[in-house]
Backbone:
């Protein structure tokens, strides 16, 4: 093989790996007190209302900071497997403090090592829930397509206020300004 081609490929793999890691960084938020069942019930109602509005039958799981189930609801005619998938999406989002879409995107980008993470469900539809800057649990939605599940989960999360996105990748510091030569008069 041409050595230039090999070097180009290695640089490309290294760059894509670095970008995938930055895109999947966990939320910087610490964990707070776990979500209450009253709030969890309201979030599930919002997510199922979004599903109903769009003609999607979904299952909704709300978990606490440890990923343990607080509230669950499944609409009539939702496929049976969505019961487990919704819970796993919520657990992933709570335990890894990031949207499950980050795992899906990394996998789609060729980062197959994601499949080796215990308890990581790489399907959109799971979101950490943040109240007053603290992760209090997560929501997982399943039953429609992954993007549609994500719409339902986001509609519910948005009722808690502005939810933080993944942290921005670190930017290198700006180079020091070069001093301007004195102006002669």
Residues:
């Amino acid at each position: 093989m041409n050595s230039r081609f090999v070097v180009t490929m290695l640089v490309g793999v290294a760059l894509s790996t670095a970008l995938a890691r930055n895109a999947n960084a966990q939320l910087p938020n610490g964990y707070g007190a776990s979500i209450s069942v009253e709030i969890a019930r309201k979030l599930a109602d919002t997510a199922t209302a979004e599903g109903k509005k769009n003609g999607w039958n979904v299952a909704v799981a709300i978990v606490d900071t440890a990923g343990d189930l607080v509230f669950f609801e499944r609409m009539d005619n939702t496929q049976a497997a969505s019961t487990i998938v919704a819970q796993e999406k919520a657990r992933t989002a709570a335990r890894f403090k990031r949207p499950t879409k980050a795992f899906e995107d990394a996998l789609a980008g060729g980062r197959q090592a994601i499949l080796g993470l215990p308890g990581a469900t790489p399907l959109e539809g799971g979101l950490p829930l943040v109240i007053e800057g603290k992760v209090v649990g997560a929501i997982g939605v399943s039953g429609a397509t992954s993007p549609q599940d994500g719409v339902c989960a986001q509609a519910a999360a948005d009722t808690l206020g502005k939810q933080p996105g993944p942290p921005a990748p670190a930017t290198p510091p700006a180079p020091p300004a070069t001093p301007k030569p004195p102006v002669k008069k």
In short: The longest strand covers residues 134-142.
